[in-house]
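Researcher: Go.
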Amino acid sequence: MEYRPEVDGLRAIAVLAVIFYHLGIGGFSGGFIGVDIFFVISGYLITSILQTEMTAGSFTFRTFYERRVRRLFPSLCIVLFASTAFACYWYMPDDLNQYSQSLIGVLTFSSNFYFLGETDYFAKSAEYLPLLHTWSLAVEEQFYLLYPLLLLFLVRFPRRKQVMVLFVFLLLSFIGAELLSSKKAAVSFFLLPTRSWELLLGGLCAYALEKNTSCFMKKGWAALVGLAAIIASCLFLNQQSFTLGVLALPATLGAVAIILYAQDGTLVHSILKNALMVRIGLLSYSAYLWHQPLAVYYRTVFGGDAIPVLMSVLLILLTFLLSFLTWACLENPCRKRGEKAVISFKKLGLSLAAGFVLLLGVGLYGDATDGLEKRFVGTKFETLLATIEKSPLRGLCDSDRSGAESCEITDDPIHWAVLGDSHSLELGYVLGMELSAQKGQGVRLYSYSGSPPLYLSDATTECVLWTKKVVAEIARDPNIETVVIDYRLDEVFGNDLAWYQGQKTSIGLSDQEAMWASLRREIKVLMYAGKKVYFVQQIPTLPKNMSDLLRSVQDNGDIYGVDRSWWQQKLSFVYQHQNELRQIVSRYIDAADFLCDAEHCFAGKEFLSYYYDDDHPSLTGVKPLVDELLSFDQD
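Model: Structure:
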């Protein structure tokens, strides 16, 4: 097919949008939509190539997959080696174990399934996953396995029927994406069946341009509208409101408009074929591979979710420097085939196979040895690492993941309930084990990850409906005498401080007031039902994951977290309204009273870890809170 420089210009927009988003550069809240644009471009280019070869009768699977291997794998291999080397050097066992599992996912073209089971793409924790971005490569690789077979079957039919079949697949995929986005957003986001409509959009562009391009001439305004739609999506979409489906249409249809209508002579064609845009587009694949590990490892080493502007600029420059070197030394030379080949496919294939086998061995060994944890036996880190421990029932008891409404910690008769988000999981588990041992009583845990107190919300989302249902269930259960409420508060009630994290609140002041009213109502409903309600105020949030803070352990085993004054300022809304809750609940616990002294809040003391990441307590960290709760019951 004929080279189109404006398509590389479109690639440049897509990769810059993704990079700016992952670096947290202001104004690009919807930059993640760049991946959707990449899918449209990939669908267009692959279909154009397959269409031409199949029509001419020259298509072979060997040639097709040789091109894919030459295009994708050399750069991927070098980035994986560099990323893995740093992970093995820097990561503590839990993080290295998680990295090893994600590495296995990348090498088996299944990282989208791995990350579906491990994280939400938009979660804070995702900012610490160096291989998260490879989910989109897995989707494309899976598409490349199936799509040639489909086109090879369709090529025997008239062109119109081919288009109809592809459009039906596109429509089914889009409907599936839209329906799943409201209930199973992660499934919709990560998997091929609900992403294939974007690839097929690009594929239909290839069919539209196959026979005649004259009908797309002199309609440069359409390309301009498409470019505007893409820019608007990058600027105005955000992770809170985005769902895959309708909201992805402006950017994806914008990409379609550019592919179809940005013909030579149009304004958009002139913008996108600019030498700088084309060069960035040529480097886009390598830049996409490099940017995520660089951003993650910066956050890992230096701490904080927010990357300073100057450092963001330096990371972008480093990304494109590494991208240029990768493109010039590997990607471009390895792509050449036939007489122009720098390396034969046999030699390249053997080299890549050796590299991938070695990486797979590292991943399997890292997973099998729990992140090489034995290397720390006998060191000061041994006890610290042993106490970075989360609930063994976390997966089962998180309603967002398990789909279950609640879980019971032991088989003892239920007298207690714990209600909250993911912050309640460790507290509920330790409380359940202690009650079972001391009194033969059981705990029913109601936990929905990422769900703040939403009792008064009119929304019909799954977590809102869950909250209303379980509060009513707890209220009418005569066996439940005591309810412990434990939510993460700083994401919705925290101030936008830039001291170490620059963590933004999820909602504005008026919504904070409404959310606080919702929390009060939730408590009152349970109190009016005759329950004793104990409220636990969240533990302070750390500047880094616990495993990264271990390196700063002092000789006495203490690990500094944050200044207590900073935490009180961060959570000033809660502290200002605290007395409102103290007056209505049976007992009120401020976790900072147990993890902080007058000046400092600690991530750990005496070689014991109080956290297992940057905001969730470890089983050790909740133990003093559980002891306090049990002491109330003895009063």
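Model: The beta strands are 407-408, 414-420, 442-447, 482-486, 532-537, 559-563, 587-590, 600-605, 608-609.
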